[in-house]
Amino acid sequence: MSSLYLLLLLLPLVAAQTWNWGPCPSPPVQPDFNVQQYLGRWYEIEKLPASFERGKCIEANYSLRKDGTIRVLNSQFYENETSTAEGTAVVRDPREAAKLGVSFSYFSPYSPYWVLSTDYTGFTIVYSCTDFFRLFHVEFAWILTRSRFPPAETVQNAKDLLISEGIDLTRMKAAGQTGCRDE
User: What is the pLDDT of residues 116-170, one digit of tens each?
Assistant: First the structure.
């Protein structure tokens, strides 16, 4: 009975996210991931809903800090203003460097940021999942590219990979890269 109460308490927190029953899937990540090649600007093309991303023209900029961590600077255009969020990403295990952790607060734990596939110059597919007592999980997925307007084939290939790994894309939507200030 207490699990049911906990579930009811958590439901409003995950309403704007994508959640599914059961534990998180564990898709394979990019082999031999190279952080240096991954750095730079990426544009968000499609995503599973995330309450912290409501705007358009969303982009992520990654740069290496002197201490070896990765600076994450996300920006979006929302309600006629550009807002940013700065965080830190870390490689948790050098043997699986594509399984990063990211945090946007000193007080929050690192969340999974898994690079499932990337060619470093054109596209990347990122997946994140947190499971709650193996009862249900909240997941995020992003298709990012180096260009605001990638070929449709690139986006479709990314979606096909996510689907092949058992990730439900029925709620995936375009992020919106038109009408951006630097377009």
Answer: 999 999 999 999 999 999 999 999 999 999 999 999 999 999 999 999 999 999 9
Cα angle 26, 118, 88; round to 5 = 75
Give residue-wise pLDDT tens across range 2-39.
443 444 444 444 444 788 899 999 999 999 999 999 99
pLDDT at 47 over 70: yes
Burial of 132 (0-12, 13-18, 19+ CB in 10 A): middle
2 C-beta neighbours (distance < 10 Å), count = 6
**Calpha distance 114→11 (Å, rounded):** 25
Three-class SS of residue 3?
Answer: helix
Of 45-59, 62-76, 103-117, 123-137, which range is least confident? 45-59
- 60: exposed, middle or buried (C-beta count within 10 Å: 0-12, 13-18, 19+)? buried
Whether 127 and 117 have beta carbons less than 8 Å apart is answered as no
Return all residues near 24 (Cβ < 8 A) that are at least 6 apart.
Answer: 129, 130, 131, 137, 139
- Closest by CA position to 125, among listed 90, 86, 169, 179: 169
**For the chain, how long is the longest CA-to-CA vector?**
53
